[in-house]
Design the sequence.
């Protein structure tokens, strides 16, 4: 008897019979673009092997002008089709089913040749699109239908037509981007014509016996988006045009509302899919921030959808489904929705991977094979890098002891989990602790080893992390001056006015922590919707509350400062930095760049900015001025003639994050 009866109930989806209600949703991996089809096949096959019964690929471009970026993958040549056939064959050999998503980016395409219903530049794209003429529209439809036919040739079980997230089809649907007054725009009926025609032609191209999914934008979250009645009408038209299933799309990429970031409540948009349940004859798929079997089961049990789609959780753990089915949900490596190694990589033109699972996207190259000769290995420091190194080494058969100075493992994760909006880090810590035990690692806390203690080990891994950089500012010894660990870890009392020196990731985290009054909105979906101005799309067009965002008042008056002249927060994650900046602005946090610190005094921080002297009045000053390697032990070992392996922040502190620490830990342990 499964703990998730709804999740593991079979379902008929168009021509397919699926054993469970889980969709591995579309995500761009960048693997197809490498041309390494063994790599692509290994990525998907590993997930099918882990129980993912139904997979949707990343978006494939139907033509060059519709590619998200120059060189975006598609089925353009016989060689492309042959490559895809290797993927579909391998997935199907594992008993899995796989559909190909067709994505025409419209004005989001990164290139001068981009096209759209109207010549209106997207706020997040640098290129002005060309408005399509009648011939151009026919070409786009024909290219999408051709891509679908080629997907069939390549052995796919289905296709998903991407109609949401602000891409081409969505651009035709919304008055925001469709300013035409012809057969393809002018009123709701004509704005719908292109997506409906696309579905009709795709159905004709693939025949009646292949699955056709349409991803429908249920809540645009941008001004001048679609009304709810238009969305319901569209759903009916799409059904009549030949789709088998509707997948949910939530928000455009240019929306100023987070939709998948870690600060979004779990299953925070399933209620929108629920609004359409029973209004159409097609099964519905819910998505966004569903990351555990428990959350997925609840979405189904509450009648929000017929199926759930999860994408990033399958980067974090390829065995998600198998572990859930076996009742080993606690063993699933959790996706913390950080975007750091997946979406941020994609935007940087790199292959997507995963912060908590560095093997994701690297299945052919990073493998944890049994060690030839088991050795005794000491890992010093139980932060993310040290824990990962210990787990991988132990899984490979080594005898591993993990030594940690603090009373608990976790390192910097233990601070991250306390930040409002970063609650997912708590689950990651739990997983690490459980995994250490399951892998058979001997954990010794409250232990700070010296050179002599480590003498008996065959290998020593130093993962002692970082210590706060001393900025040597005049007046920093005052009792009102705290380090970030005093605030985040020790819970030191903080006054009503705070000056934060240093506006990197930690400065932003400390500001978020100190601005929050009461429970985190991430744990209260209604509060979160108020905070971001999200409401029922039936009462307000596109789901944007007419009154706008209504954030809870801040707990303190905060000033966040840096010496660099650019805007604070520039160096934060590409896909999440804007959320942190908007979040702090909403809490009234004053963010200052180009600051020279003159001295810290009981009344606050005396600064020089734009040639003017200023007092940033504050009862408390928090130093968030970066980090330096904590490598005393490593240096002592080297001086004593040993050759320790130094990883993570102890190796290089600059730009250290959990992603690099975990990756270095895993890769080292794979070699030991
Ligand atoms: P960081 O990103 O290097 O930022 C350090 C800050 O201190 C900068 O604002 C720097 O700006 C300032 N600073 C450096 N030396 C200084 C000095 N001598 N005197 C005064 N100010 C000084 O380091 P962090 O904030 O500790 O973050 C560490 C790592 O964790 C980063 O790699 C970050 O990506 C990651 N992290 C990210 C997030 C997130 O994305 N939300 C959250 C937490 C941590 P100026 O030099 O311009 O003054
Ligand atoms: Fe999830 Fe972060 Fe991994 Fe992306 S990098 S899959 S968001 S844990």
Sequence:
């Amino acid at each position: 008897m499964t703990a998730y009866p709804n999740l593991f109930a079979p379902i008929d989806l168009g021509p397919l019979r699926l054993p469970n209600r889980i969709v591995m949703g579309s995500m761009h991996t960048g693997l197809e673009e490498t041309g390494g089809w063994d790599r692509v096949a290994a990525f998907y096959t590993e997930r099918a092997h882990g129980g993912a019964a139904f997979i949707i690929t990343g978006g494939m471009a139907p033509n060059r002008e519709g590619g998200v970026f120059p060189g975006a993958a598609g089925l353009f040549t016989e060689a492309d089709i042959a490559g895809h056939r290797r993927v579909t064959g391998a997935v199907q050999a594992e008993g899995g089913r796989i559909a190909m998503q067709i994505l025409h980016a419209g004005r989001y395409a990164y290139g001068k040749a981009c096209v759209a219903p109207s010549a209106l530049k997207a706020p997040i794209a640098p290129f002005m699109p060309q408005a399509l003429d009648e011939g151009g529209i026919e070409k786009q439809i024909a290219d999408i239908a051709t891509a679908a036919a080629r997907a069939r040739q390549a052995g796919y079980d289905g296709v998903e037509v991407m109609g949401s997230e602000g891409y081409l089809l969505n651009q035709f649907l919304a008055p925001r981007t469709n300013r035409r007054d012809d057969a393809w725009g002018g009123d709701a009926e004509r704005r719908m014509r292109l997506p409906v025609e696309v579905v009709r032609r795709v159905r004709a191209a693939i025949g009646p016996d292949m699955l056709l999914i349409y991803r429908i934008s249920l809540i645009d979250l941008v001004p001048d988006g679609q009304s709810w009645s238009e969305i319901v009408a569209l759903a009916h038209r799409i059904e009549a045009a030949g789709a088998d299933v509707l997948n949910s799309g939530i928000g455009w990429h240019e929306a100023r509302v987070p939709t998948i970031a870690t600060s979004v409540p779990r299953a925070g948009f399933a209620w929108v899919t629920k609004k359409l349940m029973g209004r159409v004859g097609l099964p519905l798929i819910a998505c966004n921030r569903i990351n555990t079997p428990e959350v997925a089961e609840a979405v189904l049990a509450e009648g929000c959808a017929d199926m759930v789609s999860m994408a990033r959780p399958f980067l974090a753990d390829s065995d998600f489904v198998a572990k859930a089915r076996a009742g080993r949900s606690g063993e699933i490596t959790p996706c913390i929705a950080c975007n750091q190694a997946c979406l941020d990589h994609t935007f940087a033109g790199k292959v997507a991977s995963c912060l908590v699972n560095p093997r994701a996207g690297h299945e052919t190259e990073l493998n944890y094979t049994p060690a030839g000769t088991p050795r005794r290995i000491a890992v010093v420091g139980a932060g993310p890098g040290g824990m990962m190194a210990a787990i991988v080494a132990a899984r490979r058969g080594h005898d591993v002891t993990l030594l940690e100075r603090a009373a608990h493992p976790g390192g910097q994760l233990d601070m991250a989990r306390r930040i409002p909006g970063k609650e997912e880090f708590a689950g990651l810590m739990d997983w690490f602790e459980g995994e250490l035990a399951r892998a058979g690692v001997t954990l010794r806390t409250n232990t700070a080893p010296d050179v002599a203690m480590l003498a008996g080990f065959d290998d020593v891994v130093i993962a002692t992390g970082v210590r706060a950089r001393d900025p040597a500012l005049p007046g920093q010894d005052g009792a009102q001056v705290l380090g970030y660990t005093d605030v985040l870890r020790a819970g030191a009392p903080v006054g009503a006015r705070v000056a934060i020196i240093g506006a990197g990731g930690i400065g932003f985290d400390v500001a978020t922590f100190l601005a929050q009054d009461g429970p985190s909105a991430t744990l209260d979906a209604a509060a979160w919707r108020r905070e971001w101005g999200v409401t029922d799309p039936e009462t307000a067009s596109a789901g944007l509350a007419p009154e706008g965002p209504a954030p809870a008042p801040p707990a303190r008056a905060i000033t966040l400062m840096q010496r660099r002249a650019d805007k604070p927060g520039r160096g934060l994650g590409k896909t999440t930095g804007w959320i942190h900046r908007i979040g702090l602005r909403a809490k009234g946090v004053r963010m200052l760049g180009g600051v020279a610190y003159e001295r810290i005094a009981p009344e606050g921080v005396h600064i020089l900015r734009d040639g003017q002297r200023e007092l940033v009045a504050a009862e408390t000053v928090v130093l968030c001025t970066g980090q330096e390697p904590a490598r005393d032990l490593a240096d002592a070992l080297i001086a004593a003639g040993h050759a320790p392996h130094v990883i993570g922040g102890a190796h290089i502190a600059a730009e250290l994050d959990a992603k690099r620490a975990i990756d270095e830990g895993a890769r080292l342990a794979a070699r030991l």
